Every structure is written in structure tokens, then in C-alpha cells.
Amino acid sequence: MAEVEEEGRKPSEEFTDESEEEDSEEEPKLKYERLSNGVTEILQNDAASCMTVHDKFLALGTHFGKVFLLDIQGNVTQKFEISSVKINQISLDESGEHVGICSEDGKVQVFGLYTREGFHENFDCPVKVVALHPQFTRSNYKQFVTGGNKLLLYERNWLNRWKTSVLHEGEGTINNIQWRANLIAWANNVGVKIYDISTKQRITNVLRDNASLRPDMYPCSLCWKDNTTLIVGWGTSIKICVVKERNPTEMRDLPSRYVEIMSAFETEFFISGLAPLADQLVTLFFVKENSDQMDEEFRARPRLDIIQPLPESCEEISSDALTVRNFQDNECRDYRLEHAEGESLFYIISPKDIVVAKERDQDDHIDWLLEKKKYEEALMAAEISFKNIKRHDVQKIGMAYINHLVEKGDYDSAARKCQKVLGKNMELWENEVYRFKTIGQLKAISQYLPRGDLRLRPAIYEMILHEFLKTDYEGFATLIREWPGELYNNMAIVQAVTDHLKKDPTNGTLLTTLAELYTYDQRYDRALEIYLRLRHKDVYQLIHKHNLFSSIEDKIVLLMDFDKEKAVDMLLDNEDKISTDRVVEELADRPELLHVYLHKLFKRDHHKGQKYHERQIGLYAEYDRPNLLPFLRDSTHCPLEKALEICQERNFVEETVFLLSRMGNCRRALQMIMEELEDVDKAIEFAKEQDDAELWEDLISYSIDKPPFITGLLNNIGTHVDPILLIHRIKEGMEIPNLRDSLVKILHDYNLQILLREGCKKILVADSLSLLQKMHRTQMRGVRVDEENICESCHATILPSDMAKPFSVVVFHCRHMFHKECLPSSGTIPGLQFCDICSAKRRGPGSGILEMKK
Questions:
Q1: Sign of torsion, CA 438 444 447 449?
Q2: Is this entry keyworded Protein transport (predicted)?
Q3: Burial of 776 per CB tally in 10 Å (0-12, 13-18, 19+)
Q4: In this structure, are 411 and 506 located in the same domain?
């Protein structure tokens, strides 16, 4: 809470809220300041007895019978000498144009502040309270009430005379009246009552809870929250009453309205005043405490609490103890709480002091956060409410936060906040960079420096790069990768890196970084040399990105040594930039690499490298025999004689067999399979592929004296050669392994062939029958003949115009139609005719006739 001090005031007179824990983490809800200026002078010589608050001004009554009109700052604008004794009550209408005043000597005055009309009356007893009709300015609402021993209603009639009515009497002194709309609420020694001026009915009586308290020492506090909600505070009890309309069926002789108590609860201290704050209550408490040294009570500072009413209790939201002047001498009746409707302003009135409490705004909230060193929350609050704050600047709060983080030693967080706080202010950025340099934390701020459209001077970035280069090669490399090359003088950094490489020429990190710097400087050949020297994975990306193919023509072997697959793919993808002939020339001394290149070239296109196929035979034979046979099969440009020579030299039987068969020497190929491979299955497979009866005869002749071969033949030739031919040639008494199984298999295969033939025959017969039936059904269908059809011979309408005459029409199954007389003679077979059109087009005879006669 803000402290308000006056010059010359003793420390004990300082106005503050008491906070038992000075470093409490709970933020106060209200802030306070003294109403000074003219009020200070008034209260030095007099004492406040009452005050009324209007939106435009304040009205203050004193113990010496004076009434002062004040502006919101406490400056006196008007002064009225009403009486020589205490002013008990001041009442204003809603417009603030009329005022009602009553005093302890029985004077009642009601007059216009801007007119001369008024009411002046002296009673023979003190008048404690007065209340004007809220709409008093309007001519038909010239009403007010006074309270002393009686509650009197004054009304001005059409003759401009004041008529007096007694609304209530006989229950002691009336000490409070509050008028809202058509409802008048007043409190006397017995309780609180409400009167409906529109129906002239009293509608409730709320009894006082603690009858032992003197009503003159602990007066009742009344406050209207709205037109139907009355808040009653008396002693330590608070009740919230709501005026409701009664159901017409329940009225009978009862008032049209009734009151329901929505909430009732006890408080810890005595109530001196009440005011609404949204759905909460602001309560002014008079506090008595027991002395630790004496057994008697003494008066403590009054408290202003914000509470949340509940049906049978309340929840304390905030509580402030107020050091008002002379609080030790004040009683409960000496305090009052007034509030300005529509504004969260609360006036605490005591005889020698007036304090204004108001809700804390966003600036106050930020003040409190900064005081508690909650800089991040303060910055967030300022950013959210930057349009509403008046005393604070978002950037200044951010700078305070950065300073706080630096003081704590949290340099990374401080540097991160610079991005958000410093924004586009380049001067502030440079100041912060130099500050971080002074404390030796350039590394912390390096990753957060601006690097987009807004940039610092190149010297700033170079200073940071030099700092990293001295202590952290990896960090230096990271910055070079992340920062655009335009941020700094590239040549200066290249020179610095070169100087460091003189001390450590094999440092891979520095070499890689130097290559990147050369790339930024578009000296790609220098970068390429370093990448190749380091066997760096980005070398291929560099070549592609900057089209460096002309620079790598003499470095193909180096690229292949680094990564054969990537190098070959790159070369083949860019044949238009590096020709196949050039690659072959470069790889001539490295046949194993040449083979890899030519092999992938052949896989992509069997014809592109055809002039190198002869060389490839030797390369496959030397480095990749498993792919030699597929190559021989797929290549149409390979010289067979050369290939046969190489295969025979290296004794590659399978490849030799293939080449012999391709050159037409199948018998020699079969002989190699039988003699050198001794693989009857391959021999049979070869014979099946060639499908040559002579080869089968050679195979049988070669195998006839070799029982294992005979077994293989018996198991496999059943579908290609009649097994009887082989069986007849087997010598009697020859022992053949698994002969029985082989014969069973031959019989099984034969039976299977028979079954397949029979099955196929059944399917063929069934399909033929089905199609015949379908054709028969189709030919048996009727054919529609109408006026649109014409004779295919004479081209006249097929039907005569006069259907009554007899006619004859011939319709073939091909849907061609003729008049019978237009058809030629039957031909060679009597009675059988064919469609001439279909016969001429060789589409068949158009078999069958449908004949129509009439």
C-alpha cells in the first residue's frame, strides 16, 4: 500500500496499511491516500462528523456546524455556516443539485445548490438523519425524510406548501436512513425497517441481533447495493436482504413486497461502514484489542476488509489495518465509510482524517510485482495491458528484468530475453553485447543476436566470432553454419581461421569451417579441395548445389575412393556434364572402380556403354563373376568369341555353356554339363530350353550306362520324351537307384496327363453346349420390325403403307431385312437362303431366316 506522508509529521502519524508480514506474497487489493489540500486545513481546526459522496463532488460536515463542498482532490469549492453544533447528516439527490442537512440542535435545511428554493425548519430535539428523494430535482418528487425520535416524511403539495407525515415512531432514536428508488430503509433501536413510498406500506422489520450493544455507540450501517438489495451491518452481524414481489395469490392483506435474507453471518470486529464492490463487500471495522501488559482493552487501528459473502459465512479476500490520525481516541461511531457509485472509490471518514481507498490498477499491480522482484510476471502483465498502463514502459520493465537475471548470474536467460525486450532497437542491442563482453559472456548472447532484415554492425558479429575462435572451435563452427555470411567480413574471418590452422593444420573442425567460409565467398574450388581432403559428406551436395562438375573431372578417383555409390550415381545423373568417355579415361588405372561405374551404367541402360562391353567381360571375370552370366545374357553388343575365350581360360563352365549354346554349339554345351558339371538336372533343364530331339537323344545315350543319370531322366523327361524310349534302352540287370519310385512317378505323371485331357475335354464340351444354347436362345428371339426399317435390297420401307394388303418380309438373324420378292433365288441348296450382305463381307452366311407373311 502506498504511504502518504506530510511534512513535519511524526513517524507514528504516517498513514499506511499494516502488513504483519512485510514480505507477504499476497498482493493487496486496494491502495490508499489521504484526502489533503483543503481538507487538511479544515481538520486541523475542526473535526469531521459526516460526509456524502457524489460523482462530481464531496460534501463534508463538521462538529462546529459547517458544511464544505469539496472537489475530488479535497479542495474547498463552497462553505455553508449551518449551525454552531455538530452536523449529523448530509444528503444529496442523484443529480447533485439539492442538498439536505440536519444538525444536533434540531435544524433541518433542504435547499438547491444552484437555486434559492429551500426548506428551513428548527425542531426542539436533535435530528440525527435526513434523506432526499433520489429524484428530488423533479417537481413531482419533492420529498425528503428526517429521523430523530420519529420518522417524518415531508412532501410539497401543489400549493407549494410542505406537508408532514409520520411514517414511524415509538422505537427509539432513528440513527440511519437510506433512500433508493421507492424504498426507504431506516434503523432505530429495535431493528431495520423498509417502507415502500409508492404503495405507502411498510414491508419488513429486520430485528437487531445483539441487543446488548448501545445503538448510539455502535450505530447501524445501511447500504443499498441496487434497487432491491439492502446490506445491513450492526455490531458484528451482517445481513444481505433482497426485496421481492409477492405472488398476487398470496397477498390478501399483506404488502405487495416482502424481504428475504439471502445471507447472514458474524464478523470478528465491530462494523463501522459497508459498501458494495461487485459481488463482494468492503467493510470498515472498529477494532478493540487486549493489551499484553494490562487486562483492559485498547483501541487499535481500524481495518478495511474485502469479503466474499456466503449464505451463512464469509471469506476474507484482503485485510488492511489503517493508521488514521488519533485512531486511539476514536469510537466505533466516529468512523464512516462512503463510496462513489460507478467508481471503485471508498472514503474512510474519521474525526481528524479522511482516507481514500481505490482499487489498484495495472500500474499498481506492476509496481507490486517489481517490488517483489517478479520481473517476468511484471513484463507479461505490461505486455498484456500495454494500452492501459500509464506509468510504466514495457521495454524499461524488460531491461530491469534483464539486469536482474544478469545480477543472478543467469546469463542464458538474460540473453534469451534480449530478443523479446530489445526488439528492433539496435542501439540497445549493441549496448547489451558490450555489457556481455565486459562480464565475459559473449557466448551466451551469440545465439540470440538479430540476423534477419535488422542487423547490428559487422564488427559486433566479428567480435563474437573471434571470441569463439579463441576458446571454442565447435561453437565457432556452429555460428558460421547458422549465421548468414553477410553479417560479417568474410575475408577477415577466413584470415583468422587460416592463422589458427598454422598452429593446428589437421584440425578437422577448423578445416570444415574454412570450407564453409570459402563456399560463402564463392571460392568453391578451394572448398571442394578441403572437403575431398577431409572426405566430408557434404562434398556431393556442394558439387550439385554450385555445379562444380568441371572442377571434379580430375578428382573422380578421389570421389570414388570416398564413396563409390554416391560418386557413381552423381556421375551417371550428370552424364551431360561429365561424359562417360571422360570418366572411363580417369578410371583407366583403377579397374576395380571402372567396373563399378560401367556395371551401374549397364544396369541403367544396356546400350549406352556398348563400346565398353568387351572390356567389361574381363572386368566382370576379375571382380564380379556372379554378375558375368547376367551380363552375357543381357548384352547384345558383347563379342561372343572374346567372351568364350576369357571364360575358357578361367574355366568358367556355366558361362562357357551359355556362350556355346548361344553360338549354336548345343551338343558341346550339353557335353560340358554332363562331363564337367556332372549335373543331370542342369543337363535336363538345358535340353528342355533347347527343345531339340537330337539333344535328348545325346543325353539319353550319355546317361544310359550311368544309373544316377537314368534316375534323373526317368524323373524329369516324362513330359518331353516318351519314357518307353529310355526304358527299352536300359540293359537288363542294371541296378538303378530308386527305380520303383521313378516308375511310379512316370505312371503318376501319365495318369495326370490323362486326367488333364479328360478334364479339358469336359470343360470344352460344356462350354460348347452352353454357347450353343445361348446362340439358340438368341436366334429364337423375335425381331422388331417397324416403319423405320428398310429393305436392304431396294431400300424402300420394309412395311407397306397399306397394312391391309398382304405382304411378305424375310428377316435374317444378322438383322438385315428384305422384301421376299427382292431376294435372289435360293442357290445350290433348295429352300435355304443366306444374307447377301454378310456373305459379300465374308462375315458368314447370316444363317437362318425369319419370315413374316400377311
A1: negative
A2: yes
A3: exposed
A4: no
Question: Looking at residue 721, what DSSP letter applies?
Answer: S
Using one digit for the tens of pLDDT, what is the confidence trace for 330-366? 899 999 999 987 788 899 999 999 999 988 888 888 8
pLDDT value at 564 more than 90: no
Give me the residues paired with residue 108 across strands. 102, 121
The CA-atom distances, in angstroms, between 799 and each of 537, 782, 787, 788, 850 are 89, 16, 6, 9, 15
Contacts of residue 130, Cβ cutoff 8 Å, sequence gap at least 6: 89, 90, 91, 100, 101, 102, 108, 110, 144, 145, 146, 147, 177
Domain boundary among 671, 694, 717: 694
Collapsing DSSP to helix, strand or coil, 120 comes out as: strand
Looking at the fold, whether 426 and 453 belong to one and the same domain comes out as no
The amino acid present at 714, given as its one-letter code, is L
Top-confidence residue, 842 or 440: 440
Structural domain count of the chain = 2
Domain that residue 391 falls in: 361-448
Q: What is the pTM of this model?
A: 0.56
468 and 560 share one domain: yes
Specify the 3-state DSSP secondary structure of 537: coil
In eight-state DSSP terms, residue 676 is: I
| Residue 408 and residue 489 in one domain | no
Tell me, yes or no, whether 594 and 681 share the same domain: yes
Residues in Cβ contact with 836 at an 8 Å cutoff, skipping those fewer than 6 apart: 793, 824
Domain limit, last residue, from 448, 475, 501: 448
Name beta bridge partners: 356: 33, 347
Phi first, then psi, for residue 68 (nearest 5°) are -115, 135
pLDDT in tens, 693-714: 666 666 666 666 666 666 666 6
